[in-house]
Amino acid sequence: MIIRCRSISKGYGEGYALVSPKPISFFGQIDRTTGVVCDENHPLYGESIAGRVLVFQSGRGSTVGSYVIYGLAKRGKAPSAMICMEAEPIVAVGAIISRIPMVDRPEKNVFKNGVFVRVYADRGFVEVLD
Amino acid sequence: MYLTNEEERILKGEEGYAKQKAMEIVTALGDIYGADRLIPISSAQIAGVSYTSLGDEGIEWLESLRDCHVAVPATLNPASIDLENWRDMGVSSEYACKQLRIINAYRQLGVKPICSCTPYLVGVIPRFGEHIVWSESSAVCYANSVLGARTNREGGPSALASAIVGKTPNYGYHLDENRKATVLINVNVKLETLSDYSTLGYLVGETIGSGVPYFRGLKPLRSEELKALGAGLGTTGSIALYHAEEVTPEYAKVLTGQVERLNFTDRDLREVCDEHFKPVNGSVELVAIGCPHMSLVELEEAAKVLKNRRVRKDRKLWLFTSIAVKRLAERCNLLDIIRRAGGEVYTDCCMALAPLKSLGVKNIAVDSAKAAFYTRLLTRVDVFFGNLKNCIDSITEV
């Protein structure tokens, strides 16, 4: 299925979807070296975001979060792409400086954990494989 | 968002990687906030300086930008340590090394190594209506409200990106319609010290959360009082702009239509203090004044309080300001008075960002509601709150 989106950070990325029902603060909720969700109160606690297509509402918290994303990418522990319902500056800036493809405002929200997703951020759409 | 041919060229990478990344950030933010175009800015004040918050990842990113230079005058937010006298603070050379590497990375980009939350006290003074990109929330409040310049509350990376391209998306507080008052605050409060003004700001920020407050009933204010008020507002709320009747430059045209009205009294102020802060007492080890950084007038006031007093054994008095104001204080003999009383003046840094725990500090007293809030949150030491005089009295003797 093809879903149109808005392009935020250019590039192509693919992987299995990891869907967060809650916003994510990269500064504090994600382990800076492993990419594992380290906040016990977050629904994705214990999951690794590395290599996944991370689907979430938006980022929140400190703007230092942008640099945490950059560090994850440097260590190969960042998501392969990100899909936000509504982009905000922390995650958008983090994706851009880390060259992680990112889109927001998908026309439909059909993303489920584990489905394979191709993110064509340059062209403003994603493909969900069943 | 509309882009000029030149902006398009930068976005395509024709002026190098760093400028391309900066333009990508600026245009993405413009799209997110629905800006129509980019507008030129006259200065930038960049957050993301202290090693405690930036970490090694931040250093890597800054050092990757080597091939470019900022397009407008740019200064920095406070760091974690005094850039010259960090040894006197007790900071390890390993930590200092990381912090100085960050400053050097900014310096390579042409950013001035002036680390202060009060750029308007050290020669960066935007004029009325000028568009700027500042990060530090108290400086944003001062620039928007007191000077009538125009800035949003920027994050560190977006301020740096704007400094590199010399432009910012045209949205938020850059536009007239977003500078109108959204709530009328009637102040029936006796305000005596700077701590009182900072507490009033803290209380109003906590109550309204966001929007543009319009204060009625504040007497003509000193700029230090406006600085303290704005710092409080920016702490508990996402507030970037306030107006004060017959005090700030835009007040006459911003109260249009019906807005919510709120009253604040002495009792409200006392209650917020009792609820959020522990009062100063005899067990205080370190008194830290200067959030935001002290002006020359404030240092003079501190010197007056210290006259004929002396900091007790095993107690410390740290005053925080910018490098420029410290030099002026030296010229005016204030530094000498403060040092003879056993105090020290540090520059470039801030008590809330300092690695207090590793310096062996167990508790601290401050006279700013903003400092009380962030020091507890970021350093995890015990924090007491008072005014300049009772803070200093708590650790000194005649």
Describe the protein in words:
The complex is a heterodimer of chains A (about 130) and B (about 400). Helices cover about 20% and strands about 30% of the residues of chain A. Chain A has three helices and eight strands; from the N terminus they run E-E-E-H-E-H-E-H-E-E-E. Chain A is globular and about 35 Å long. The N and C termini of chain A lie close together (about 10 Å). The model of chain A has no long low-confidence stretch (mean pLDDT about 95). With about 400 residues, chain B is of the alpha/beta class. Chain B has 15 helices and 17 strands. Chain B has helices at about 5-10, 15-30, 50-65, 85-90, 95-110, 135-145, 155-165, 195-210, 225-235, 265-275, 295-305, 325-330, 335-340, 370-380, 390-395, and strands spanning about 40, 45, 75, 135, 165-170, 185-190, 215, 245, 260-265, 280, 285-290, 310, 315-320, 345, 365, 380-385, 395. In chain B, the strands form five sheets. In chain B, strands 10-16-15-11-13-14 form a six-stranded parallel beta sheet, with helices on both faces. In chain B, strands 8-7-6-9 form a four-stranded parallel beta sheet. A three-stranded parallel beta sheet of chain B has the order 3-2-4. Chain B is globular, with a radius of gyration of 21 Å. Chains A and B meet through strand 2, helix 2 and helix 3 of A and helix 2, helix 3 and helix 7 of B.
Write the SSE topology:
The complex is a heterodimer of chains A (130) and B (398).
Chain A: E1 2-4, E2 6-9, E3 12-19, H1 26-29, E4 53-56, H2 65-74, E5 81-84, H3 89-98, E6 102-104, E7 116-120, E8 125-129
Parallel strand pairs in A: 3-4, 4-5, 5-6
Antiparallel strand pairs in A: 1-8, 2-6, 3-7, 7-8
Helix pairs in contact in A: 2-3
Chain B: H1 5-11, H2 17-32, E1 38-40, E2 44-46, H3 51-63, E3 74-76, H4 86-89, H5 93-108, E4 133-134, H6 137-147, H7 156-165, E5 167-169, E6 183-188, H8 194-208, E7 213-216, H9 223-236, E8 243-244, E9 260-265, H10 266-276, E10 278-279, E11 286-289, H11 296-306, E12 310-311, E13 316-321, H12 323-331, H13 334-340, E14 343-347, E15 363-366, H14 369-379, E16 382-385, H15 388-395, E17 396-397
Parallel strand pairs in B: 2-3, 2-4, 6-7, 6-9, 7-8, 10-16, 11-13, 11-15, 13-14, 15-16
Antiparallel strand pairs in B: 1-5, 12-17
